[in-house]
Amino acid sequence: MTTPLLQIRDLTMRFGGLTAVDKLSFNVERGVIHGLIGPNGAGKTTTFNAISGFYKPTSGDIILRDESIAGLQMHEVAHRGLVRTFQHSTLFAEMTVMENVLVGTHMEFPPSIWNALSRQDAHDRSGAEAKAMEALDFFGLTGFVDTLAGELPHGHQRALGMAVALACRPDIMLLDEPFTGMNPEETKRMMTLMQKLREAGLTLLLVEHDMHAIMGLCDNITCMSFGKLLAEGSPQEIRNHPDVIEAYLGGARHVA
Amino acid sequence: MRKSIIWLVCVAALAALPHLLSFSQQEILVVLVINILLVVSYRLMTLTGEWSLGHVVIMGVGAYTSALLTKNLGMYVPVSMILGSLMAAFVAFLLSFPLFRMKGFYFLIGSFASAEIIRLLWKRFRDPFGGPKGLKLIDGLPDINIGPIHIDFFEPTHYYYFAVIVVAACLWILWRIERSLLGLTFHAVHWQDKLAQASGVDVRRFRTLAFVLASGFAGVSGALLTHYIGTINPNTFDVELMVFVLTWAIVGGTATFYGPILGCVALTVLNEIVLREMGFEQARPLIYGVVMIASILFLPNGLESLVKRGVAAWQGRTGGAGAKEKTP
Ligand SMILES: Nc1ncnc2c1ncn2[C@@H]1O[C@H](COP(=O)(O)OP(=O)(O)O)[C@@H](O)[C@H]1O
Ligand SMILES: [Mg+2]
After folding, report:
1. Residue B105, min C-alpha distance to chain A (Å)
2. Are B34 and B236 a contacting pair, CB within 8 Å?
């Protein structure tokens, strides 16, 4: 058996007295779509923040391939092939759609003063724009190249956030509620695109509260509640798991 | 083709300009050219979203370094200017370690405090900085004598040409940087540092780079100034000048490359031509304050927004169809 791409081991994240994530452990296999679900406030976003380096874990370990990435900064994690999107459309609102995705090509075309002053810049820019166009094309955004990101419709903003992440050419993408603000049709199209990404060899870890999307899309699901692991397994197993049913029916209305 | 004609006209205008002015106005013109580099370099640092209050002291580091190298070591002036600029960049690099632990308001205060410390060092140490009285009799740019050509840089017009060439070269570099992928990264760091970092941008490194670059060019402007006026002291680079730089940037606007230049030129004309001739010199800081507040209230996007609107209106009138084609 091959080792998992991403291993979360006893991850704990405390804010003062509040333990948002409590000794959470799970594995994400290579080339799958892995869902992370749980009632609102279960600690899913916090888990993402700890994995991606936005927070430094209080304790526990995070292993990408065979290297510990716990405590690294977000850009260091990105350089190792793990890129995340944000729960609320976090974009460069004042910049154009193209410029947004160009920032995603930063690692492939690292800027420098020397490049800026020589012909290298024009060369890099055309290379970066070609790569950016690929990502925009994948998400159907080529018609908005010169639009300011802040002026895009909400569903398109979510797609742009993913295009920026895709332009980073990651091995694994962490998507926090990618379908919020999308209508059913957009959601369906986005699900197809995610399957295409998986076929291309990308690994996806996603938080989502659209149960229909989660069940239809994921190969494996991890369910957490109050910061702790509740259950894990295939969509079938999760759907029929008594603890999961309990967690969703018992009190928490928002299922994510 | 049309572009090169416009450039030719600009060059001719810059060359002719000092000949249309009186001697004292020529002296002001030289300082104006130097101040343009100062405020444009300041804008480079604001691209990443941080506003420093230490920029003119960093300029002073360039000035002191270049002056001391020529005075004490007899160094050739253009070389000392380059070293002055590098020293300013280096001091900024050192300051970046404590300063970039802070953001926003705290960065502002931190930059002010560290600048005051540098100024105190200049005041405190008579050797080598000359104490409160500063440095006097600083060498000018050496004369150029090639056969029949004789250029004496004590002549403001001649120094003006020298400064224009140096400043134009610096502005070209700053312009290239802004338009490059590097400039894009600076903007990204400003608008959404979280997303930039998630995309692999080492935010701290690029903030530092913008700060160091801006400081290097501020050092050039300091060196240009010191070898022109020939005497500097800690008060040459005091808070009043910093307030002027902020006013130029805010009145002109910082969204475009030319905004701060507009602000600097407009306020210098107001200041030197109007106020001085009318004998209001004492009230200068007061009037600058009023202008700054008025521009924040009535022209929040700066003079550059007027230019943008003017250009848009002009395009709308001359070629409505052409203007529409550009924005589908
Ligand atoms: N930066 C923070 N400081 C303090 N508490 C936080 C912080 N981030 C999250 N929390 C808390 O951690 C818990 C889990 O939040 P979160 O991870 O956003 O849940 P989810 O994404 O599963 O809805 C919540 O109780 C939230 O209030
Ligand atoms: Mg969340």
Report:
1. 22
2. no
CB contact under 8 A, B187 and A106: no
A176 forms bridges with which residues in the sheet? A207
How do residues B146-162 score in pLDDT, each as one tens digit?
A: 887 888 888 889 999 99
* DSSP SS3 for B326: helix
Instruction: Using a CB–CB cutoff of 8 Å, tell me whether B255 touches chain A.
Output: no
Whether A90 sits inside 8 A of B187 (CB atoms) is no
The region that residue B38 occupies, defined by phi over 0 for left and psi between -120 and 50 for alpha, beta otherwise, is alpha
CA end-to-end distance (rounded Å), chain A: 31
Question: What span, in angstroms and rounded, lies between the C-alpha atoms of B112 and B126?
Answer: 23
Q: Of how many residues is chain A composed? A: 256
Which amino acid would we find at residue B242? M
Angle at CA B233, nearest 5°, toward B228 and B236? Answer: 70
Overall residue count recorded for chain B in this entry: 328
Q: Which CA distances in Å does A36 have to A223, A252, B57?
A: 6, 16, 53
Q: Phi, psi (5° rounding) for residue A96?
A: -75, 165
CB B160 within 8 A of CB B26: yes
- Minimal Cα distance from B255: which residue of A? A94
Distance from the alpha carbon of residue A228 to the mean position of ligand 1, in angstroms:
13
Which among B244, B245, B257, B247 is positioned nearest to B295, based on CA atoms? B247
Report the separation in Å between the CA atom of A40 and the middle of ligand 2, taken as the mean of its atom positions. 7
How many other C-beta atoms can be found within 10 angstroms of the C-beta atom of residue A48? 22
Domain boundaries, chain B: 27-237, 239-328
Average of pLDDT values for A77-96? 93
- CB atoms near residue A98 (< 10 Å): 19
- Non-local (6+) Cβ contacts of B122 within 8 A are B60, B64, B129, B130, B131, B134, B233, B234
Contact criterion met (CB < 8 Å) for A78 and B200 = yes
pTM: 0.91
Q: Which residue of B has its CA nearest to A122?
A: B180
Write out residues with Cβ below 6 Å of ligand 1: A 15, 18, 20, 38, 40-46
Could you give the CA distance from residue A46 to residue A42 in angstroms, rounded to a whole number?
A: 9
Residues B120 and B123: their CA atoms lie apart, in Å, by 5
Q: Which residues contact B3 (CB under 8 A, 6 or more apart)?
A: none
- Specify the pairing of strand A59-64 against strand A33-37: unpaired
| Residue B224 · residue A96 · CB < 8 Å | no
Determine contact, residues B206/B184, Cβ cutoff 8 Å: no
pLDDT digits (tens, 9 = 90+) for A186-242: 999 999 999 999 999 999 999 988 888 888 899 999 999 999 999 999 999 988 888
- Determine the residue of A12, A18, A52, A207 to mutate for testing ligand 1's pocket, defined as the one with the most ligand atoms within 8 A of the Cβ atom: A18
pLDDT digits (tens, 9 = 90+) for A32-58: 999 999 988 999 999 999 999 999 999
SS3 A10: strand
